[in-house]
Amino acid sequence: MPKDPAVSPNLIGLADDWEKDKSIRALVRANKGLLVWPSRKTTGVPSLAALALNHRLISYAAILWLPHNPKPKTLSVEMKNEVGFLFKNESHHASTF
After folding, report:
1. Considering the domain boundaries, does residue 9 fall inside one?
2. Domain residues for 39?
3. pLDDT value for 15
4. pTM score > 0.85 for this model?
5. What pLDDT score was predicted for residue 38?
6. Which of 88, 89, 94 is nearest to 39 (CA)?
7. 21 vs 28: CA distance, rounded Å
8. Residue 79 lies inside a defined structural domain of this protein
9. I need a labelling partner for 10 at 20 to 30 A (CA). Which of 45, 66, 68, 74 fits?
10. Per-residue pLDDT tens listing for the chain (97 residues)
């Protein structure tokens, strides 16, 4: 039986939502980047620790994602590519605070 494909929601407004959130703006200014990683060694590695450090950012994406995908699914490749420019060359980690 083929897997149900994930539905990619429209991401228009996601960056604006991040921009309006004062805690996200403060995080970006403090880290000089959008994402925070537990360590340099784990940069780019998905983990619960990374999720905890970036929960505010992820929650905005989840608000857009979940209504379109009621079954548990990961972000589609198309959606990852669409927001990938935000994470390119991201090398900041928690110790940069």
Report:
1. no
2. 14-96
3. 87
4. no
5. 93
6. 94
7. 11
8. yes
9. 45
10. 445 555 666 777 888 899 999 999 998 899 888 888 999 999 988 889 999 999 998 899 888 877 877 777 665 555 555 555 555 544 444 433 2
Task: Dump strand ranges (E) for the chain.
Answer: none
The domain total for the chain is 1
Residue 2 lies in a domain: no
CA distance 61 to 77: 15
Q: How many contiguous H segments (helices) and E segments (strands) does the chain have?
A: 5, 0
Nearest Cα residue to 34 out of 13, 63, 56, 67: 56
Structure tokens at 97: 């605070």
**What pLDDT score does 21 carry?**
93
How far is Cα 53 from Cα 28, in angstroms, rounded to an integer?
12
The angle, 0 to 180 degrees and rounded to 10, between the axes of the packed helices 55-65 and 22-31 is 130
**Residue 54: burial class (beta carbons within 10 Å; 0-12, 13-18, 19+):** middle
* C-alpha of 68 from chain center: 17
